[in-house]
Amino acid sequence: MLIYEFMRMTRIQLMRKMRTIMRMPLIKNLPYLFSHHSHAFAISHRSKGFSLIELVVAMAIFVTISSVLVVSQRRFGGNTLITNLAYDVALTMRQAQVYGISVRRVKAVSDPEGIAQFERSYGIHIGTAGYYILFADADNDKKYNTASNSATGCLSSPSSGLPECVSFFKIEHGNYIKQFCGGADCYYGPLASNAIDRLEVLFHRPEPEPTVKGYKSGALVSGDYGSASVMVSSPQMATKSICISATGQMSIKATCL
Fold first, then answer.
1. Which residues pair with residue 230 across a beta bridge?
2. In 209-240, which positions are buried (b, 16+ CB within 10 angstroms) versus exposed (e)?
3. What's the CA gap between 37 and 32, in Å, rounded?
4. What are the b/e assignments for 135-173, b being 16+ CB within 10 Å?
5. pTM of this prediction?
6. Other Cβ atoms closer than 10 A to 94
7. Can you tell me the distance from the alpha carbon of 177 to that of 212, in angstroms, rounded to the nearest whole number?
8. What is the rounded distance in angstroms from the CA atom of residue 231 to the CA atom of residue 256?
9. How many other β-carbons are positioned within 10 Å of the β-carbon of residue 183?
10. Taking the domains of the chain in order of start, what are their residue ranges?
């Protein structure tokens, strides 16, 4: 009995020692496992956000791209608007040409027989006030009656002379007429000396060729010009030119020179 009890106690002690030995690697590895888990957690935690330098770089890239897009959009919009304005001016000139050679009636002319109403010229008036006008030469004096319009539109009852304003076109969106020329005689701006400040292009049946007249300080320049040109500009300095040749041909170009 004593022998049996001794053997049982010995076996229990051996089993305990074996369990202790088997558990030792696990216990030794626990610090490593805990430290490795903490390091992985820290890396995972740091990867979820931006550092201050990364945020500054990202903001700089965003601001640069946004600035480029805004500038490009404004430039594209300016080019589109100035191109549309150039075509509007050219179409108005073409309309004056069609009216002039197709014998369009001018109601302002007092004529019992009605013949004189179909013998008038049509033209376009261009000045420095930020608008241009399609007009009918009702009194047949080969020039536009400037009393026929105000700063905002045509007048049906001008203070003097016959009403000659047919259509009034205000130039908007900051665009403006930068230059207009009769032949080589040009208007370059309000500070230009001895330059024309008014241009009129008229058409009379049956010829498609234009009659181009210029004015300096309200006085008609002697002699007609052979051709004409008008340059329009945007606030971004994009320009387009409308060119009218001596044969009546019209075109849109970068420059008419």
1. 180, 242
2. bbbbbbbeeeeeeeeebebbbbbbbbebebbb
3. 8
4. bbbbeeeebbbbbbbeeeebbeebeeebbbbbebeebee
5. 0.69
6. 15
7. 18
8. 9
9. 17
10. 70-253
Question: Which residue, chain included where needed, has tokens 């309000």?
Answer: 190
Amino acid at 63: V
Distance CA(197)–CA(185), nearest Å, equals 10
pLDDT single digits (tens) 115-158: 667 788 999 999 999 999 999 999 889 999 999 999 999 999 99
Domain 70-253: homologous superfamily in CATH: minor pseudopilin epsh domain (3.55.40.10)
Query: Nearest to residue 230, comparing CAs of 218, 206, 214?
Result: 214
Is the bond preceding 206 in cis, omega lying within 30 degrees of 0?
yes
Parts of the chain with a pLDDT under 70: 1-50, 71-78, 108, 110-116, 191
Tens of pLDDT, residue by residue over 91-119, are 999 999 999 998 788 876 766 556 667 78
- The pLDDT value given to residue 33: 44
